[in-house]
Amino acid sequence: MARPTVRRRRRAALAVATAASLLLAAACDSGTQSGEIKIGFITATTGPVAFAGQTFGNGTQLAIDQLNQEDYLGGGRKIKLVRKEGAENPARAVEQAKQLAGDQGVVGAICCILSPVAGAVKPITSAAKLPLDIYGATDLGLEDPPYVVRTTTLPQDANRSLARKVVAQAKPASVAYAVTQDNSGWVSQLKSFQEGFAGTGVRDLGTVNTLAAQTDFSGAAGQLMAKNPEAVVIAALQQSSISLIKALRSRGYRGLIVTAETIGSPGAFKAAGQTLADVPFPVYFFAGKASAQGQKFAQSYKAKYGTDPDDYAAQGYMAAYMMATAAKNAGKDVTRESVTKALSNIKSLDGTIYGSVRFENGQLHAPDSIVHITWTKDGRQTEWTPSGRSAS
C-alpha cells in the first residue's frame, strides 16, 4: 500500500494535469489558440425575406472565404461562421441568439434584416457582452455602442436622394404613398421619401396603409389609383412591394412607381419579371459604378454565384469584413471584450467595397456611393432615367 505522502503527491499531480487540460480546452474553445475565430451568423434563408436573406448570406460567406484565403487575420488563423437559421422571425432569432451568447467561443455576431428582429436580438447579445453587427435592419437608432454596431447602409438617406431626383427629372405633379404600417423600419423609410418630396410643390395625395402579413394587394392598388397620382411611392416589405407593383400594373396604372432597395435582389426580379422594369430604387452598391475594391467583389461574386451582387450581398460582405477587421485589430487574444473594443475604435475605413466610409456612434455612412437604378425588361440593372410614363 502506498504511503499517505505518496498518495497526496499523486493526487496533486493529477489535479495539476486536470487543471492544465481544462485550461487548454478553454483556450481552444475561445478560438485564439486553435487558430479558429468563431463569428455567429443568424441567417434568413427561409421565411418572409428569403430572397434578400440568400444574397445577404452569399455576400457574408464570400467575404469570409476571401479573408481566410488571404490570411487576413495573420498567423494562419481562420474565421469560422457559426450559422443559425432565424428566418427573420423574432422568437426564433432570439433563441438562436441565446445559443450564440451561451457559446463563449463565439466572439461576435452578425444578424438581422428586419428591424423588429434586430430589436428583439440586441438585448440578448448585449446582456452577454457579445458584440453584434446589424447588417440589414433599417429602423433608426438600432445601433447601440459599444455592443451593437450597424453596417446597414441607411436607406433613409438614399430614399431622400431618389425623391429629389424624381422631382427634378420626372417632374410629377402629385404623389401617393403606400407603407407597411406595422413595421417601424418601413414607416421610417416612408418618412424619408416624404421628406425628399416636401417643399418641392409636388402635391401629397395621402398614404395607403398595408400590413406585413397581407397577401392581397388589389384593394390597396385600387385605393392608390383612386387618388389619381402621377407617381406612387411604395415603402414596404419585399414581397409586399412586388405584389403591390403587380396589382397596380395589372389594373392599368401607367404612372411612375418608386420604391426602396428591397426589389433589388435577383430573386425579386425572378418573382416579378418585367413588372419591375422602369421602377427606380436607390442602392449604395452598383457594380457599374463601384470602387476598385467593389469591382473586385463584384467579379468574385459573379464567379462564385453566377449573378451580379445586389445591395444586400454588398451589405452582407461589409458586415463580415467589419467583424473580421475588429477581430484582426483585437490582437492575439481575440475575446468578446477585445473585439468590442476594436469595433468601438473603428471610426473610418478606406478601400472598402463602398470606397471610403465613416462611422458615427456605431453607424456606417457612405453617402458618396448612392446610385439610383432600375431593372430592365431583360433582367439587368442599369442607372435610372425617367422613361416618360404618365398616369392613366
Automatic annotation (TrEMBL):
InterPro entries: BCAA_transport, Leu-bd, Peripla_BP_I. Residues 1-25 form the signal peptide. Pfam families: Peripla_BP_6. Residues 36-367 form the Leucine-binding protein domain. Keywords: Signal. PROSITE patterns: PROKAR_LIPOPROTEIN. The keyword Cell division does not apply. PANTHER family: LEUCINE-SPECIFIC-BINDING PROTEIN, PERIPLASMIC BINDING PROTEIN OF ABC TRANSPORTER FOR NATURAL AMINO ACIDS. Belongs to the leucine-binding protein family. This is ABC-type branched-subunit amino acid transport system substrate-binding protein. It comes from Actinomadura luteofluorescens. The lineage of its organism: Bacteria, Bacillati, Actinomycetota, Actinomycetes, Streptosporangiales.
